[in-house]
Amino acid sequence: MALAMNNTPEFPVLIDKKKIDAAVRRLAAEISRDYRDKNPVLLGVLKGSFIFMADLVRQLDFPLEIEFIRLFSYGGGTHSSGSVKMARGVPLKLKGRHVLVVEDIIDTGFTLAHLLHYLKEKEPASVKLCAFTDKPSRRVAVLNVDYVGFTVPDKFVVGYGLDYAEKYRNLPEVSYLED
Ligand code: IMP
Ligand code: MG
Hints:
Blueprint: E1 13-15, H1 17-35, E2 41-46, H2 50-57, E3 65-72, E4 85-86, E5 98-106, H3 110-120, E6 126-134, E7 147-151, E8 157-158, E9 174-176
Parallel strand pairs: 2-3, 2-5, 5-6, 6-7
Antiparallel strand pairs: 1-9, 3-4, 8-9
């Protein structure tokens, strides 16, 4: 595998920086329209959502709060193990709050189905989902994704927060691993 100047492999780019910026601006406009007066809690799913969350919230100019939750479903491979683990709960009180879950990618949907079940018990006023990328071809759990940046093909994607075995989160664009 070829190494670029910065010592990271050169994967084929799927979504370049320009497209990412445009999608983040579009999502921010949609979210602003729906949440401007709701003081929402944006709940990012770590680690994958950290870059997307950082770009997204800097496009939102109304009162909101940011929380993160850590969920695991992959044991270092490219396929969901199906069992989802949570490192710690949400420290913030969610009762009566409008919660917007911010995810890097939705694949089988197991991770978010698990999280939605957990959140429902906190009695929030509403829960919606915002995914930077969506891979609907492999969906198992039925989910309604309210805000989607990109629909991606059935490939393993990395960069812009997304990892393969904890690597490549720092790539500025979204690339894919060739089979
Ligand atoms: P799900 O539970 O199968 O929907 O998987 C969701 C989680 O798996 C995401 O939050 C990612 O962390 C990870 N994941 C799924 N597909 C990919 C991918 O193509 N690249 C990197 N991570 C992925
Ligand atoms: Mg994730």
